[in-house]
Amino acid sequence: MKTYNISKKILAALLVAGMIFTSCDDRFEELNNNPNQVVEVSPDQILPYIQNGMSAHRFESWRGNILYAMHYSCLMSSPWLGGVEFQAANDAWTQGMWDRAYQRLGGNLQAMEDFINDLPEGPDKDAQLAIADVMRVLIYHRLTDFFGDVPYSEAGLGMEGIFQPKYDAQEEIYKDMLSRLESASARLRMGENTYGTQDIFYKGDEEGWIRLANSLRLRLGMRISDIDPQLSAQHVGAVINEPLITTNDWNCLMPHENDGSQWSSASNGTSAPISAFAAHYMAKALVDNMQGDPRLEFYGAALESGEVVGRPSGTIPSDVSLPDFTADNYSLLNSSEGAVFDLGNDWIHISAAEVNFLLAEAALRGIGRNQSDADAQMYYEEGINQGLSYWGLSPTTEMETNTAFDPAQGMNQIITQKWIALFPDGFEAFAELRRTDYPTFASDQVYGDIPKRHKYPVIEQTLNGKNYSEAISRQGPDVETTSVWWDVN
């Protein structure tokens, strides 16, 4: 497992970068004369703030990932949503996630790009802009997959007087993101990553960014395989033989530190509320699909019986009687030291396991390459192995039996194992569940219809009403049952 230590100086710089445009203080003059106070920022100060902010803060992680995406993807269950996990959109939680994504992440990204654009022309400038493009895709593809049409091309342009950005159609967002990733990979080959150690993801190694750009292009290319097979094959075929994240050494991860505080900017934001509140439980569907999987004990805490027990997901019908939501009846998500929800665990944006499963699906379906059951099996098995080896584990005999590849059941097997490996990234698991309709769930595992998207914040109807109305007239009603563009299954 690749890990990095975050220096306290870098964390301090992250906090300053986050506050630089928003803080006020009556003691301005004193602060202004402080020789240690950062009064100007540069791209290499903003980049680590954005990298850290995508997984360290509770707004995106708790309100977005835990309370919504992980429930929607049937990876966890909790009483926070009152037993109606698929219909419990709390607008305050949605607003917090939306604002954070646009103000702190997208807004700072735009500022970083503006700074870079003022630099002298040259290959190193192109490489810096290429990295900014990859970061843009990481931020906005999560947003568009979750909501559908979202502000994109005009987002972050408040300094240019655009305070009511249009909602771009998801189709156009995807085409632009794929184009940016294609260009980014090429530009990174020509220039040097001058961010150096300020680049928390890859420590200034441009090869890591090339692999990340190609792997994201593979992910997005497969995401549109049902809605636009031609464009999908074009992009998938272009990257399957290029450098990709196929081993854990190249995982795109954000390291975090357990300094004992759930509020710390060093802590893993998804782990923080799990460790603070004993009210987050394993989902039955996940537990049932992990029989014999040695990762199960890292995911969920065993009961006194030694078993990991999950609770059904969804909106539980009134005529269905279930044991109470307590740690005596269901397994809590595991926040112990070294487990998935340890405050100091890395957050993985895209892993070798996921990339191998994407390659397995491409081989099985013949997307961007010739169809091959043998190659599909090879990548499928490597995806499982990479997912296990990240935790220092090997498959058990029971797991090998349960996961033996059968081409006739290939899609279900590939996506189910990817869904398990994605844990606890609810955003990506939710997207793949909608795209493929896999895994298939038993009637006692999931109750009710899984949402197709998440609703926009209500305040958008007031602050950006015209563009909001145009978006829903194009996409469909602003409800959880409206499909996003690429979801045609």
TrEMBL record:
It comes from the Bacteria. Gene3D superfamilies: 1.25.40.390. InterPro entries: SusD-like_2 (IPR041662), TPR-like_helical_dom_sf (IPR011990). This is SusD/RagB family nutrient-binding outer membrane lipoprotein.
